[in-house]
Amino acid sequence: MMQAVCVDVPGGPENLLLQSVPRPQPKDGEVLIKVHATALNRADLLQRRGLYPPPPGESDIIGLEVAGTVDTLGPGVKRGWKPDDRVMALLCGGGYAEYVAVPEQLLMHVPPNLTLCQAAAIPEAWLTAFQLLVFVAQVKEGEVVLAHAGASGVGTAAVQLVRLFGAVPVVTAGSPEKLKMAESLGAAAGFNYKEESFAQGVHDFTGGKGANVILDCVGGSNWEQNVSSLAVDGRWVLYGTLGGRAVEGDLLGKLLSKRGHLLCSLLRSRSLQYKADLVEAFSQTVLPHFSEQGSFLTPVIDSTFNLESVAEAHRHMEANKNTGKIVITTSGFSLKFVSGLTDKRRIHRESELHRESELHRDPRGHTSGLYGSTEHGHIYLSAVKS
After folding, report:
1. What CATH topology corresponds to 126-264?
2. Which entry of 18, 71, 306, 307 is 20 to 30 Å from 314 by CA?
3. What's this model's pTM, rounded to 2 decimal places?
């Protein structure tokens, strides 16, 4: 048996329950992972509400990515995985649990300089951004890429990948703090969509040429500004509809006048072979850069909760409070980063903070988590109950 977060009935975060369920057994070609951490995605919120069910035959436990260690190999595993290997994996479901069985093609080795909590923030967000940029938009060196929600998990990954590919990232976000985060990762410009026209900002930044690629998770409410922002022959990649699905007005006519390409993509519903090809391409072209000395690639973590606090984590995301990824651990403590959030040195000290939080106990013997904030590269801590 194992502990897993289940949904009793579709609805709010209060319907997320920690229960004892059977531990999965790895099938042919699968690897059983002992999960150290998973991470939240917007799809998790939709699945909890009953709006985004898992593909047929997949686990109905929420969670699209994990990091942990290899526990057991199923029959037919061929890629040399060994017990206790540190791995991260893309999932169709099952991440909010102590164990998950995964096709071996979807596993990746965790770079040696990353903690498992950092690694949990990579598979879904970074593979989504990589897929949109490389497989779908086929971004080219020197192009301008507009990424909406530039401080989200996918957004922060996209900014860094665009830089890696020699293109120019610009972003939208809903607060000065989130724009500051995106710019600290390398965004060349940022526009607060709540206070200004991002279309005008893109126009001014590009000298009227527009963005060659738009990564759009918002949808309906942004369509006019998106078309206005798009360069002639540009690629508008739609991968979410957080701003609504309905569109009114002359979308097709305006898109046609720019010879624009509207490309739509989802990842969860893709075939195993497609995902395996994606994981292989990412592992070959991007993953090694995480280990390079002086690399600017880093998973951005907003906060860390434990399985018992998963409802709070969902509320945190639903309130749009996160900058970067929200991580959920199975190890019984929570670590929340507040304010700042722009200092890369803080991110690389995450493992030290986790070790401290695991060791910290108050005088009554209760384990505590740690609140951490950054200012001028320093980390300030205060203990809070988990």
Report:
1. Rossmann fold (3.40.50)
2. 71
3. 0.85
